[in-house]
Amino acid sequence: MNGSQTPARPPPPLSGRGSPLSRMPPRKSLALFAFIFLINYLLMRFLFPGEQPVTVPYTEFRQQVAAGNVIALYSRGTTIEGRFRNAVTWPTPEEVKQAGQPPRPTPLDRRLLPPPKTSSHFNTELPAFFDRDLEDFLINNKVEISAVPIQQGGLWTTLLYFGPALLIIGFYVWMYRRAAQGGGMGGGGVFGIGRSKAKRYDATDPSLRVTFNDVAGIDEAEAELVEIVDFLKAPDKYTRLGGTAPKGVLLIGAPGTGKTLLAKAVAGEAGVPFFSMSAAEFVEMIVGVGAARVRDLFKQARESAPAIIFIDEIDAIGRARGGVMVGGGHSEQEQTLQQILTEMDGFTGREGIIVLAATNTPDVLDRALLRPGRFDRRVVVNLPDKAGREAILKVHVRKTPLAADVRLEELAQATPGFSGADLKNLVNEAALLAARRSEAAVTHKDFLDALEKIVLGPERPLLLTLQDRERIAYHEGGHAILGLVVPGADPVHRVSIVPRGQALGVTYQRPQTDRYNYPEAYLRARIIGMLGGRAAEEVVYGTKTTGAENDIEQATQLARNMVTRWGMSEAVGMVQLAPRENHFLGAPGGFGGEKPFSEQTAALIDAEVQRIIHGCHEEAKRLLREHRRALDGLVSALLNKETLSEEEILQATGLPPAPQLEGAPIREKTV
Ligand SMILES: Nc1ncnc2c1ncn2[C@@H]1O[C@H](COP(=O)(O)OP(=O)(O)OP(=O)(O)O)[C@@H](O)[C@H]1O
Ligand SMILES: [Zn+2]
């Protein structure tokens, strides 16, 4: 009943911005539908000119027959339908004038003559008294009398009639499927299936211009692209001095790290147009379309060179060939890829066009793409470190009014694993919260609340009894106290017993710095902290609840990694017994089904994991008994205020922050 969790690992990078279906603005689609209707109408008019018959009085009909202007007719009941040789207008202007009605009567003028109409098709009503000599009269005047309706006869006519309608229905179906596939229907739309739907973004428009000023926290990647900017600014000078013109640059990085932003900034810095397109949009159901789009995209860029072509998600088409494809589209994908290669091979280096492409799975790319003269430069865009995150936050709060208490450095510290896009989202959420609270400026608390919402989900209203709340408070208090007293533990900066997402309470700890290398003592401190919730319940109540499930899961995982991956068990030694965890740049891990060790080793691993967990559990209980007074103080403050900040925690417990480990952590990239 008392579930809670400690976010032990950095929050997963948040992604997924904007669903593909939402890409088509409703107004655009409306205009498109209107256009199709218009085409349909014109087509019908073209195929069936004068389709609307004119209704003439019987006397007028006879006059036309006498004048030899009636070619053929068909009669059904008392109605006669037929065709004139020359189109007839009825009522005639004279008749309209005689009746004294306006040239364009409104529906209210019903008793008057109908509006004049011109057609070579007509119909008329036979008078009630039967015209005996009509047949002779018609034959004498060489009118063809037919038993089939003149217009509705024949399969051919029927087909012709429904053809356009069928075509249009087919068209709608096709368009919806495309929209559903996320292709969007941007610029080219219906009118140019083979035209590229590249979004052109003009770096010369100052309001849209993105520069390196807007990019932060990924300085290494930025520095590597400065050369590209120089080249675009003066392609001739560059090649004259003997430099080889760069052709393609592959930007590699996790989602939201700013690859698109970086490409735009290169265009902005160089002052050249930027053509961007997602590779997923190249891949169509119709074979050959992708290649045509590529051709068009490069043509457009060539016309406005120097320019940048940006291809997002290149892995969508650049996947190594010969692999297993899901569904169709294999050869389509190949053709599209081939076309890109052909276009790039065609560069002499004097066009001043550079192709930037982005991916987050470089290992799956076809070798052909990476060959010299193609995407032979690779720029890795890493997730930002703490200083980088602070710099990115600074970029995004430029237009946000901030309260004086906002400490961006602390926020940067609390957001390990966040990408640039995640940080932008954080600023946005905080601003929304501030607006909802009708504040004049965004406060530090808005940021913390936004962060909590992003990482843990929104608050969940739950009716809890006083006993439940107290138990949750002791559980969270246990985590928090251990965060304060275990040397090397991550500082606790927030404790809350407000239910959120799956958790009934939360203890939020933030690492002092970004850690790339974890000392063993730190990992033990983490496990002790994770087990602190259950340990506190045991120390205070002497009973257990299900609330520790998440804690147990995380602690076990960590202990298992210590034994099987990091060689931290004397009994097992430095042997790799579990695959490296999937990392976005790493090859997919896994030993492929079978365990590469014996049953004895398996038993040894289990025993070692249990030994670590058991030791940490005992240590947690011992420390909580020792600091029972601090724990009680924290719990009463929690029951009182529900959420406590770092200062409030220190005040309620009367404890100093946890001492840091000696020589730790070591900051070193080991990716
Ligand atoms: N380093 C950064 N500095 C400033 N803003 C950033 C940074 N990285 C990302 N952002 C913000 O996040 C937004 C999304 O980033 P962007 O689309 O460039 O990421 P991406 O790496 O191309 O992502 P994806 O792989 O999902 O296409 C940017 O428009 C920008 O506002
Ligand atoms: Zn817990």
TrEMBL record:
Top EC class per UniProt?
A: hydrolase
EC number annotated for this UniProt entry: 3.4.24.-
Alphabetically ordered keywords of this record:
ATP-binding, Cell membrane, Hydrolase, Membrane, Metal-binding, Metalloprotease, Nucleotide-binding, Protease, Transmembrane, Transmembrane helix, Zinc
InterPro entries in the record: AAA+_ATPase, AAA_lid_3, ATPase_AAA_core, ATPase_AAA_CS, FtsH, P-loop_NTPase, Pept_M41_FtsH_extracell, Peptidase_M41
What is the UniProt remark on how the cofactor binds and its stoichiometry?
Binds 1 zinc ion per subunit.
Parts of the chain that traverse the membrane: 30-48, 155-175
From the Swiss-Prot or TrEMBL record, what is one GO molecular function term? Answer: zinc ion binding
Residues at the catalytic site:
E476
GO CC terms for this protein?
A: plasma membrane
> Where is ATP bound in this sequence?
G253, A254, P255, G256, T257, G258, K259, T260
Region annotation Disordered: where it falls in the sequence: 1-22, 650-671
State whether keyword Flavoprotein applies.
Answer: no
Q: Which family does it belong to?
A: In the central section; belongs to the AAA ATPase family. In the C-terminal section; belongs to the peptidase M41 family.
What job does the chain carry out?
A: Acts as a processive, ATP-dependent zinc metallopeptidase for both cytoplasmic and membrane proteins. Plays a role in the quality control of integral membrane proteins.
Subunit field text = Homohexamer.
Alphabetical list of NCBIfam families matching this protein: FtsH_fam
Q: Per its record, how is this protein called by name?
A: ATP-dependent zinc metalloprotease FtsH
* Designated gene of the protein: ftsH
